Every structure is written in C-alpha cells, then in structure tokens.
From TrEMBL, chains A, B, C, D:
This is Ion transporter. The chain crosses the membrane at residues 58-81, 88-106, 144-165, 177-194, 206-226. It is found in: Membrane. Keywords: Ion channel, Ion transport, Membrane, Potassium, Potassium channel, Potassium transport, Transmembrane, Transmembrane helix, Transport, Voltage-gated channel.
C-alpha cells in the first residue's frame, strides 16, 4: 500500500507533464516529442533518396532505433498515466502512436519503412489547426456531401463524354472511361499536367463546355471549406 | 367494374412507394433504383476497358440485360401510376428514363453503348443538389449571360491575338483561329495542358497581358455560380 | 428650303432607329448589325483555316465585300444623323467603326486581314457588360494600380531568382531574365504550360517559396475585379 | 561655429527633399531615384541576354557605373541628413541601399551581378502597397502560421503517399520523397507543369483524393492574404 502510494504520487506528478500544455514541464515534454517526430520525418525522407552511402545508412538506422525506443517509452507512459487506458488505445491518437512503432517490432525494422510516415500524424496532437478543420468540417458536412456528389457527377459525365469523343482518335491515351476520369480530375481542378488532352475538334469543344459548367461546380466544395475555416476562426 | 376497383386500389397503393420518399417502402424503392443506376454506371465503365476476357464480357452482358429489364418495368410502372402519363413522358426525367432503355431495344444492345452513360442522369431525381443548382442558376441567369458573353469576347480576342503572333512562327501548332481559341480556353481557365503555348516574344508578352486582364473576367461566371450556390443553402 | 426640310425630317426619322433600342425599328436595326458582326467574325475565323478550297474562298470573299459595303453605309448613316459628327469620328465606337472598314479600302482587301478581328469590338456597343466593367474598373482603379504593381514586383523578383538558380543548369531554357519572367507569369497564374520549369533542388525550393508568397499577391487584382463586378450589379 | 551653421542649414534644407513626398522638390527627388532604379533593373535584365554585342555591353557597363555613383551619393546623403545615422544603417531600407552598391565595390563590378536585382527592393520605399501588405500580414499572422503548417502537413503526406505508389513504377521520376514534395507543390497549387505525374491506377486514385481534400486546405493561406488585403484598404 505504501509502494502503491508512491506509484500513485508519481502518476499524479507525470500526468500534467504529458497531458497538459499549461505547465513549463509539459511544454518541454511536448517540444521534445515534436522534435523527435520532425527528426523521424526528415530521417525517413532522406532514407528514400537512392544515392546514400553505407555509412550514412548506418547513422539513419541508429536514429531510427533510438526514435522507436523513445516513442515506445512515450506510448507506455501515456498508457500508464491515462485514467481509462482502453479508451486511449482505441482513440485516434492512441492508434497513431501504436502504428508509429508497431511495424518496427513486427518486421525488426524491415520492409514496412513506408508506415513510418504515419508518425507525421502524431504532430496533429499539437496542432491547433486540427481542431479548426474538425469544427469547419462539422459545420459544412451536409453541404460538402451535396456538392461533393455534384462534383463527382460532373467529373463522371465529363469522363464519359471525353472518352466517346477521343477514344477513336487516341485509343492508346483514352483507353477506357477510367482514363477519362483521370483527364476530368486533372482538367476540372485546373492542374492540367498535359499527359492526356483532347486532340479532336469535338473533344476540344466538349472540353470548353465542360470547363464553362464544371469549374463553378467543382470549385464549390473547396470554396466552402476555405470560407468555413475563416468563419471558425472567430469561435476558436 | 369490380376488377377496375382492384386496379385502382393497387395504383393507390403503389403510387406513394414510387413518388414519395416519406414512407419506408418508398425509401426502399429509391435505394433499389439508385443501386441499379450505380451498378449500371460501374458496369459501363468497366466494359470500356480494352483488356477484358470473353467470360467477363458475358457477365457484364447479363447484368446489362437484367438492368434494362428492371428499368423497363420501372418506366411502365411510373407511367401507369402517373395521373397525367403524357406529361410524364415529355418531362425531363421521363425522357431520361426512356433514353436509358430505348437504345438497347433499337439495336438489340448493339452499337449505342455510349448512350448508357445517360442513365447517370437518372440519379439526379434523387439529388438534393439538383434543386439548389436550379435555384442558383435562376437567381444569376441574367448575370451569367452578361459575364458569359464577356468571357467569350475575351477568349475570342485572345485567340485572334495569339494566332496573329504565333501563326508565322508555329504554323503547324497555331493553324487557324480555332487553335487560338483552344489555347485561350486552356490558358484563361489556367488548365495549361502544354500542348499549345507561345514561343515568340510577342506572343509571350501578349499572353501576359491577356492573363492580367482576362483572369478577372473569365473567373467571374464561376465565382458567381459558387457564391450563388452558397447563398441558396439558406433558402433550401 | 423645302428640300432641306425633307432631309431634316428623314434624319429625325432615322436617328431613333440608329441610336435607340427602345423602338421596334431600333431593335431590328441593332439585331441586323449584330448579326453582320457575327457573320464577319465567323467568316474571318474560317478564312484563317489552311485547308480551304478556292471555291470556298470565293464565297468568303463575296461575304467580306458585302459586309464592308454594309458597314460603310452604317458608318456614313451614323455620321449623318449624329448631331456632332466630329465628336462621333473621334469617339471610341466611331474609331472602331472606321478601323472596321478602312483596311479594306487601303489595301483593296489585301494583307490587313487580321485587322478585321477589330470588328468584334463593334459588338461592345450593344453589350451591357461593357458598362459594368467600366464602372467596376473606375471603382477599383487605385487598388488595381497598387496591387498590379505589387504583382509585377513579385513576378520580376521571382524571374531573377529562378534565372540565378536555373541558368547554370539549363542555359538553353533559362537564357535570360526574360525567360524567367515568362516562367514566373505561367507559374504564378498557375497556368503551368510545362515548357519551362526548374530542375535543380535550389530552383524547386525557390519555386515553392515563390508560390507560397506569390499566389496570394498575384490573385489579388483579379479577385478585386471579380468582387467589384458583382458589387456593381446592384447599381446597374 | 559659423561654418557648422551653414552645414546645419543645408541639412535642414535637404532633409525634407529626401524624406518627404509633400514638397515639389521631394517629389522630383523621388521620381529621379525611382527612374534610376527602373533603369538599373532594365539594364540588368538586358545584360543577362546571351546574344549581346561587345559595344552594347560597354554601354550597359557605363550605365552601371553611373548608377552606382548616383546610388552611392544617395546613400551618403541619406546617412548625412538622418538624425540617427546608425539606426538608418541597420534599418531594412538602409541595408537594401547598402547591398545595392556594396557588391560593385567589393568585386569592382565583377561576379556579383545577380545581387544588383536587390536594387528592385529600393522601389518598395515608394510603394504604398508595401504598407498594406505589412498591415495585412500582421492582422492574419496567427492564421497564416496555423494554416501554413496545415498546408505543409498536407503537402508532406501527399508527397509520401505518391512516392509509395509511384516509386516502383517510375523509379527515375519519383526517386525519393523529395520528388514527391515537388509533385505535391505543383499539383496542390494547380500549376501542374507536367514533368512529374502519376501513371499507376493507385497513384491516380490517390491524386484524386489528395486534390479533393488538399485544394481546400492549400487555398486557405492565399485566400486569407487576399481577403485581408482588401479589408486593409479601408484603414489605409
């Protein structure tokens, strides 16, 4: 019972450090974890570069092992101080924390390198932007569904139309309606890579009509999100 | 007369299922038809892929025959329960329903495959977005006409200008003012595929001036539609 | 004196037909001239196509001669009914009307074909959009000057930067700061043709920074014009 | 003491010319310096062109020497009339003025040509736009930080995703996550040069999802700047 008290006291001591950003110690802890996430992200990004030397790879490997150790400690400490550990395990951030370390143990650091990018999501915990996006999203959920569906409809009809016009002229480029969808996405978002584009007069005229009608439709969901985000700022 | 009563009772029973979304049976009917439309759309999209096997084609063919049978039943049931059948036949949705099945019977499922994409429009009946677009469009009809014409004017003048500058330097690319129009559409919507672009100093300077003036003009109609759509949300 | 009276009466009779859109005769006259302008524009556009036959060219040639005859009559009738003929000659629309016909007489329909595109501007006389653009432009004149200059500054600094980064790596593409300006215009308007783009890490990082800062700046003038145009609608 | 008086009087005479735009002499001085800056910018731009003759280079060289002389005089006069010279030297405009002339003396006009582009920044002193950008920036500083970070997060996650999808199919194009970042910047700003784009079905589907979510996020910072700039106009 005496020992239990010590543990209980320790937990009461550590909890505010980990869960709150109000105390100096809490801010230091947050900064440390955020720096680790950044190191992890930069290290992963560099590791994907093809022309790295063997020595450099060894350095990256040690960084990775240290980071996994730190993130594992962080995970168990969070689990320990949490009042309802099971709720934490299945919460969004609990799962992100778990997936950040699990692939390393499963493969002994082998082939699941890419999953390390998920660690980036750990930073969301510290991001005030996240809450705004959540509020903005809830506010315009119904709108987004309606206009998102309208955008999908416009994209699909544009895809079928361009396929009908261009498939006979460019059977290797517009092989199926799927290629049409790719063209419609690149065109209506105005990205326009230039890998697929109409060459027939019919296809070009159709593109003109699609842009005249479609730009206004496809632009609505992202305009809604942008304006909702700036409205949310007053409530934040 | 007794038999006529049964028919009348049956019609009174079926009508709310088909025409209303308030009753559970009506909602089920709507979900079934919507699923069929989706199956039809996906099936058509897959059918356009070039590398399908003969067996796979047979499956798609059976799906198509079943769907045409279902949509034909749906069409006649709608016609039968409708109080003014002729009005339904020549209404927008009546025509869409008819064109969704007619090509199959005319060609015994032959060469008019592409017309099956029109079935996508059947989904509009269930889309709340449709009504908003209609209201938004009515609200800004006069505006759209004025600024749509202004956009056409800017596009045409840009097309003539770039043709004059670039035709001597790239006679194979800017063959006529029509190529200029295609360039103007791709440029002023900022899609910029990169299949046609100016190479002379005069043409590049002209492009700069056209973008400086034209972006503001061509952006107006789609900005009007987007802002009108978000205004309409309050009235919906 | 008696004859002078007839002329005066005739002028009084014709003037409202030509200058007003309120009377039925005035509306008919306007529609005729607008149709002629459209025929002229379409005829010019078709004439630029390279693969026209000799017979087709003869038809276009007759149309052109007829149109010049009609526009010449229109010009002299306008001059005649006008109370202050000299003011009309040097007014914007008077000059447009003159340039629409003059090249034909100077070269007997020869090499100044391209100037026929100017006839398109005759349609502005009938366009309600024109007045709105004029009002919108006056309203934001000072703003446009300030932010237009800011955009030019951003474009120039981006051009110098990309030239410094990319010239050593791509001396044939980024030959001088002028090529950098062309790149900056295509990039900051998000057209992105893909004829010039950075390939060095420095140039790509610089592009990222330029886009982060520049998109907000370059978008301002056209956003100002678009929002001013929709404000003006209430006053029109 | 008498001589000191003359100097003091001269300074009192020259100061309003240099520091104020209210007096006619002040306006003339400003116009002269602005013209010199413009000449310098145009001269630098032309100098980067590869096909210049030796004679032409000599002319540009003389212009450069004259301009450095004038800007040096301007710098020392500003230093002399300034009440707190040290504050001027380390102010933004003081440093810009110094960097505009220093490279010439350090290298006797040699290899630091590119630094001459910095002279463009001298024009900011005369730009009313500058103040607005400063005010707009202060107003939305916190917003910009939050949404700028969110944009960076979206760009990085998009980069990792496209690298995972496209690296096996295009190892020469998507060599590392850095190429993915370049692709994400070009795509989410809708520039779309077309030098890098996905070719696998997975990569294209991922692009569609990234655009659906990301356009709304990445557009926010520049939309914030644009709307803040038009708000600031009322306070200016």
């Amino acid at each position: 019972m005496h020992r239990g008290n010590i543990v209980r006291d320790l937990r009461a001591l550590i909890r505010p450090i980990i869960e709150s950003r109000e105390t100096p110690a809490g801010r230091v802890f947050d900064w440390v974890i955020q720096s680790m996430i950044l190191v992890s992200v930069v290290s992963y990004t560099i590791e994907t570069m093809p022309e790295r030397s063997e020595a450099f790879y060894a350095v990256l490997r040690s960084i990775e092992i240290s980071l996994v150790a730190i993130f594992t400690c962080e995970y168990f400490v969070r689990l320990w101080v949490e009042k309802r550990p099971w709720k934490f395990i299945f919460s969004f951030y609990g799962l992100v924390d778990l997936i950040s370390i699990l692939p390393f143990y499963l493969t002994m650091g082998g082939d699941l390198r890419a999953l390390r990018a998920i660690r980036m999501l750990k930073i969301l915990r510290y991001s005030r932007a996240m809450n705004r996006f959540r509020l903005a999203f809830i506010e315009i959920r119904a709108e987004l569904a309606v206009f998102g569906l309208a955008s999908l409809l416009v994209i699909y009809l544009a895809a079928v139309g361009i396929y009908i016009f261009e498939n006979p002229a460019q059977p290797e480029i517009f092989r199926s309606v799927f290629d049409g969808i790719w063209w419609a996405v690149a065109t209506l978002t105005t990205v326009g890579y230039g890998d697929v584009y109409p060459i027939t007069t019919g296809g070009k005229t159709f593109t003109f009509l699609v842009l005249a009608v479609g730009l206004g439709v496809v632009a609505v969901p992202s305009a809604l999100l942008a304006s909702s985000l700036s409205r949310v700022r007053d409530k934040d």
